[in-house]
Specification:
It is a single chain. The protein is α+β, with helices and mostly antiparallel strands and 259 residues long. It has 2 domains: 58 residues; 196 residues, Cyclophilin, CATH 2.40.100. It contains 3 helices and 12 strands. The strands form 2 sheets. Strands 3-12-1-2-10-7-8-5-4-11 form a 10-stranded antiparallel sheet. The protein has a two-stranded antiparallel sheet with strand order 6-9.
């Protein structure tokens, strides 16, 4: 027969064994959690490495810009020199855009923006703008349709940059450092830094307040402005204030001629 002391010792031993089992199980669970967390961390690190390698975190300029900045989403490092001057810098030139939405023409003043006009004439003569998309429409804050990217993504350009010109044409900036780019203005997009214009440009369809940092180099004719306004009325493809136009616009042919 088991004595009361033996019974107490047996119960104490069983309790101790249960405690040891619980502690062992807790250690196993802890190790499993650590393994899972370690694996998850490895996945996150690998993902981040992949994103960086893929260019996702290569800087804000490669992401969508704020709606008050008519800038290319990226500007590749220039690998070429701008074309040699080959225009009459005392003349006026017309850029005729045959687009899927209608014809848009604007006059360019070579006397005020010789580098810009020379670049656009050189590019147009090579068919650079043919079959390219106007990739971006902004419908709030500023009111612009942006074109001139051969990739149609906001990341393309001609492989070179041109200097800013004619930046004082729109008057003295207000207290916010802005001037009004009037409806009908055509101006160069850039990365937000001086001298980073390439081939992307924006068509202003409604007066827009902007810093005087974007070369104004053209004036859209009345019929062309109506075409851009109609594109803007349809809004963007996803209903946002800044994005691809709902009614796609393709420049089928871009031609620059001397007046």
């Amino acid at each position: 027969m088991v004595s009361s002391d033996q019974r107490r010792r047996q119960l104490a031993r069983e309790k101790y064994e249960r405690q040891q089992q619980r502690r062992a199980e807790a250690r196993r669970k802890s190790r499993r959690r650590a393994a899972v967390i370690g694996a998850a961390a490895a996945v996150v690190v690998a993902t981040l490495v992949g994103l960086v390698a893929g260019g996702v975190f290569d800087g804000e300029d490669k992401k969508t810009k704020a709606s008050d900045t008519p800038s290319p989403s990226a500007s590749p490092t220039p690998k070429q020199s701008p074309p040699a001057m080959a225009i009459d810098d005392k003349a006026k030139y017309t850029f005729d855009l045959k687009t899927s939405a209608g014809d848009v023409k604007f006059e360019m003043d070579a006397a005020k923006t010789p580098q810009t006009v020379n670049s656009f004439k050189s590019l147009a003569d090579k068919g650079f703008f043919d079959n390219t998309k106007c990739h971006r429409l902004v419908t709030s804050g500023i009111f612009v349709l942006q074109c001139g990217d051969p990739q149609g993504t906001g990341m393309g350009g001609p492989g070179y940059t041109i200097p800013d010109e004619n930046l004082d044409a729109l008057g003295k900036p207000n207290e916010q450092g802005q001037v009004i780019y009037p409806a009908g203005t055509v101006a160069m997009a850039n990365t937000g830094q001086p001298g980073t214009g390439g081939s992307q440009f924006f068509l202003v369809y409604k007066d827009s307040p902007l810093a005087p940092s974007y070369t104004p180099f053209g004036k859209i004719d009345a019929a062309g402005l109506k075409v851009v306004e109609d594109v803007a009325k349809a809004g963007t493809a996803d209903g946002a204030q800044d994005g691809a136009p709902k009614n796609p616009v393709t420049i089928e042919k871009g031609t620059v001629t001397k007046n």
